[in-house]
Amino acid sequence: HIHPPQHIASTKDAGYKLYRGGTIVFQLYFEHEFLGKVASKHFLPWCTTGGTKKLRTLHKKLIEDGAEEWYLVRIVPRRNLFDHLLPDNLGLFASFVTQHYVSRRNRIIPSLEHWIPHCGARLILNSNYTRKSSSKKDPTSGVLPSQLLKSVPLSSNDYVDNFNIFTEFGELTPAQVLTLFNEFINWSEFHQSPFMQAVESQKHKQHRFARSLDDDESADEPGELQRAKSKKSTDTL
């Protein structure tokens, strides 16, 4: 169940607050389908006194959420993902999106030239971008303009129309982001570019953050155990 589903189902027309980097990664890695709405009380679990403080706090927030209905969404891993994005490149793609979707208004060519100088000409002169395709079919046609009720087929050969120096990342669909990424990593300068250093730096930050979460849980757990032991001793007496 998802509440609300906008962050995972939004299209590029939904605006910055909904169409973010996480939206793009999700829509490429997973298939989803909106099934309907269900009363939230059918999903909320019973909260027992034996749970940790973090679980009790989370349960309280769920109760106080105020939404009487939740969206029921079917989510499964995309079956043909590896036909378009190799397993070894999953982390690189997520970093590519994270780096460039700090702001949707980031212009593509200046951003990529930060990693590989003078690479913009390769995109502007690329016949796949300059060729006009009047017969190109929009995979989101027939659905809500800013929401996908069901995933669209994945493509890694989807080139944005009228690509130029002013084209922004926020104008790209998830498939177009994937197409651009696959082109970017196949340039000869890619593996020696500062982008790879940025990826490694991001990994270290994520590891430190994960360790800090583990430390917080470890610090909270002894207190819970101590209270449980004290309660048991009191009951025995």
Automatic annotation (TrEMBL):
GO terms for molecular function: mitochondrial transcription factor activity; RNA binding; rRNA (adenine-N6,N6-)-dimethyltransferase activity. Residues 214-223 have a biased composition (Acidic residues). Residues 201-237 are annotated as: Disordered. This is Dimethyladenosine transferase 2, mitochondrial. InterPro entries: KsgA/Erm, SAM-dependent_MTases_sf. It comes from Anopheles melas. The keyword Isomerase does not apply. It comes from the Eukaryota.
